Amino acid sequence: MLRGGFVLLDADSGDVARVFEFQFNPTALRRTLAASNTALPSDAPGQEGADTQWKEAIRLELELDSADAAATEEPSPSEHGIAPQLAALESIASPDTILSTPLTVFVWGRMRIQPVQIVELDILEEAFDASLNPVRATVAVTMNILRETDLGGQGRRLYQAYERKKERLASLSHGSLSVLGAPDVLR
Question: Radius of gyration of the chain from Cα atoms?
Answer without folding.
Answer: 21
